[in-house]
Hints:
The complex is a heterodimer.
Chain A: H1 2-32, H2 39-56, H3 61-84, H4 92-114, E1 119-120, E2 130-132, E3 135-137, H5 139-161, H6 163-173, H7 175-180, H8 185-210, E4 213-214, H9 218-233, H10 238-257, H11 264-278
Antiparallel strand pairs in A: 1-4, 2-3
Chain B: E1 2-11, E2 14-24, E3 29-33, H1 40-47, E4 55-60, E5 63-64, H2 70-75, E6 78-81, H3 93-100, H4 109-118, H5 120-124, H6 135-147, E7 153-157, H7 165-180, E8 184-189, H8 192-198, E9 201-206, E10 209-215, H9 216-221, H10 223-229
Parallel strand pairs in B: 3-8, 3-9, 6-7, 7-8
Antiparallel strand pairs in B: 1-2, 1-4, 4-5, 9-10
Helix pairs in contact in B: 3-6
Amino acid sequence: MSTVISQIFNGLQSGSVYALVALGYSMVYGIIMLLNFAHGDIIMVGAYVAWIMIAKAGLPPAVGVVAAVVGCTLLGITIEKVAYAPLRKSPRLSLLITAIGISFFLENLAQLVMGAGAKSMPEIVSGPGLSFAGANISFVAMVTIVVAVISMVLLTILVQRTKMGKAMRAVSEDMDSARLMGISVNRTISFTFALGSALAGIGAVLYSCAYPQASPTMGSMLGLKAFVAAVLGGIGSIPGAMIGGFAIGLLEAFVSAVGLSVWKEGAVFAILILVLLIKPTGIMGRVITEKV
Amino acid sequence: MLQVNDINVYYGPIHAIKGLSFEVRPGEIVALIGANGAGKSTVLKTISGLIRPKTGSIVFDGRDITKTEAHKIVQAGLAHVPEGRRIFLQMTVMENLEMGAFTQKSVSEEDLEAVFTRFPRLKERRRQIAGTLSGGEQQMLAMGRALMSRPKLMMLDEPSMGLAPLLVAQIFEIIAELNKSGTTILLVEQNAGMALEVAHRAYVLETGRITLSGTGAELAESDEIKKAYLGG
Ligand SMILES: Nc1ncnc2c1ncn2[C@@H]1O[C@H](COP(=O)(O)OP(=O)(O)O)[C@@H](O)[C@H]1O
Ligand SMILES: [Mg+2]
């Protein structure tokens, strides 16, 4: 029993990170139909920013956390403006190829600037764990889950209730119609990237708490898993990304718990294949009718 | 209020609008009629900034808007109710109206009441997802949403499309009422009979060119129009 409970918390902890990252994939897909394969690498940049601030500059962890989130947000906005916005009227394939190019660019840039080896991250948060039904739950796990849940609640309120959030939904449903309402599509897309990247920044920090290392390629596997989470939940759907993220985290935890941890990644990609075969629209996905 | 001066619009190699000029004066209902594919929707999209003319100019309310971005044109007081309504189907009726008021600082209760008075059905259904509305209700929502931006000029693209005759009559009645209460109207229709009845003036569009123009009554009487658009 106690192992089951600790595995559930392990799953929720990594699931929190997957969910935060999956949200970025889903929101961007929802608004410009782009699978933003550079999204995972934003996390890597966030982790390096935190490392530079905390380990190199010796600033307090809180400063590192804020810098990582702000850095990711600015990076996300910049990538959209520089690389994707000029391709607004191009075929979707050009956009996808550009995203993959940006991903390689960021990984290689990190390698060039920071070196290929991993940097070890100092402790960001620490505190007493919790004993719950015989299982030990680490402080980091609790912080991760709580921060992720709060972020998701805030995001939901923002998207459902605020003027900008509604504009985001309007643009993702019908871009031209949104323009006719007086909504600036470019600003709304920028805002979406900012939000998704800020969540990735939070994800980067939480991930660094669990795996205290920064390396140039750390974002690619994390990004891929989060992408699978987004597809599982229904790409384009915000609640879907949250559900998908936690589902993938839990799946991994249980595959590891039954002694098949080498198959952890395999299981995630098996899910991707299954979803694409059985229900490509995912759990929360709506049938996407091609716009005429 | 609106002057369209010698515009040429292309879709890639297709020359859709060929040297078109016309005007809409304050307080008028002007109809643009023509067969499917004549270029009516293209004209409206060009005016509202969704597409750009290659040459020519568009002046609205004394201001050259030829190169103005679409979302800023709405701000200037020009609303476009597009063909096929294009309401936000996954948002509620209320949210659609809020989007209509996007250019306003906040959603004014007064404007909302005015829309609900004109379209009581929308009030009943304000919490409903717009995709669950009937065709007629969707058209009303599209018009109500446009009204929320407080337009000086409202452009309507085939508001009667796909509606039962009774509803069509109702929609045209509403258009006439809106006009009486001070909104200038540019109306695009394939339903030439109804359009000419309600319009002060009308233009006939054929493959990107204006071939005829006159008052609604004149055109309704013209033999050419009767033959081509009014079924004899
Ligand atoms: N997006 C587009 N791409 C290419 N050609 C188009 C496009 N939209 C319209 N056209 C062409 O432009 C012409 C005018 O179309 P449109 O303005 O929709 O006519 P109408 O509204 O009078 O039915 C038609 O020949 C149509 O095929
Ligand atoms: Mg048309």
